[in-house]
Amino acid sequence: MNYETQVAGDAPVRIFAEEPQPARRRALVIGSIVAIILVAIAAWVSMHGKGAEAPAAEQAPVVTVIVPGQSVVPRTISGTGSLAARVEMPVGVVGEGGEVRQVLVQPGDWVRAGQVLAVIERSVQAEQIRSLAAQVEVNRADAKLAQAQLDRARALVKRGFISQADIDQRTATRDAANARVNVAVAQLAEQRARTGRLDIRAPAAGLVLTRDVEPGQIVGSGSGVLFRMAKGGEMELLAQLSEGDLTTLRPGNSATVTPIGSQAQFSGRVWQVSPVVDPQTRQGIARIAIAYNAAIRPGGFASASIVSGSGTAPMLPESAVQTDAKGHYVYVVNARGETERRDVEVGQVSEKGVAVTRGLNGNERIVASAGAFLRPGQKVRPQLQKAG
């Protein structure tokens, strides 16, 4: 604001003059702009300065980590194969055969050794047995007569009525009659044995698996297998294993067998390891004996987990192991408090957790859970917990 001094009479007079209005408005606008810029700079500094580090640190998630160390875990081998009877017994016609009159068992029946499975018609053989039995009686009568004649001759020879030559003759007649008795008895026993073989019998105690004969069917030595049995009901798994896995197995190794489509598991034991390997597939067979169970059906498919020894490996809870298209992995917290992805190979899964066979030495800090919500390089606040 300008002013001028004028003299009016004896006293000076100060006269004020207003500034032009446009200049004043420009000053106000410039001041406002400067104030806005200063406020923006102050806000930027507050957001990006040292004071921002504390909120960022407070936002880092807390994660539970474990240091698993090394645990003793069994080494296992996995394989698949078909189920079968450990000792399968095919049963067919032993004798001359004929028409089947009765079938006495069904698949799934337990039978004793020597039990009749099927009966074949034997009317002709029965008549032959009666004929031979009668022939035995005839020969015994002849032998009895020959013995009586010999006894009378021996009494007369002392009186001089019969010579010693007659005695020898009668002795030979008696011996021949006895021999004919023995022949007839043997023929009768043979016929009875042949007739007995018409019964189709179980060669040993066990479980009937299949039946391929019906009443009225004509069977003979060329009829093939009429019944199949599992001796003692014992089953086995013919597990197909690689050449390398076979070298680690020994008879007596324990195994767990799981039929395909079933949640049931059955304990077994390796009783034979194949001494040869298929040159085409480079695989061999480990035979795993299993006790009888109705859920185990010969011809079915099953998987097996075979314990081939023991070793040491880090043991993690299942929640610590993540899986994606690249495979299994875990998150490790490094010294800077950042997460790192670590690819691993897993072994046996048990109630104790997951055995890690490759990728960890056991001294790392492993994120125990919530790994799916983390990303590599993320800052975290680890909270140590003992490995369970």
What is this structure's SSE topology?
Blueprint: E1 2-8, E2 11-17, H1 21-48, H2 53-59, E3 62-66, E4 71-85, E5 88-92, E6 98-103, E7 110-111, E8 116-120, H3 123-157, H4 164-196, E9 200-201, E10 206-211, E11 218-219, E12 225-231, E13 235-242, H5 243-246, E14 254-259, E15 266-273, E16 283-290, E17 301-313, E18 315-316, E19 322-324, E20 327-333, E21 339-343, E22 345-350, E23 353-358, E24 366-367, E25 381-385
Parallel strand pairs: 3-25
Antiparallel strand pairs: 1-2, 3-24, 4-13, 4-17, 5-12, 6-8, 6-11, 7-10, 8-9, 10-12, 13-16, 14-15, 14-17, 15-16, 18-23, 19-20, 20-21, 22-23
Helix pairs in contact: 3-4
Percent of residues in helices comes to 25-40%
**Order of adjacent strands in the largest pleated sheet:** 4-13-16-15-14-17
Distance between the termini: 85 Å
Biggest sheet statistics? 6 strands, antiparallel, barrel
CATH topology of the largest domain: Elongation Factor Tu (Ef-tu), domain 3
Name the CATH superfamily assignment of the largest domain: Efflux pump adaptor protein, beta barrel domain
Transmembrane segments: 27-47
Protein name: Efflux RND transporter periplasmic adaptor subunit
Family: Belongs to the membrane fusion protein (MFP) (TC 8.A.1) family.
Organism: Sphingobium tyrosinilyticum
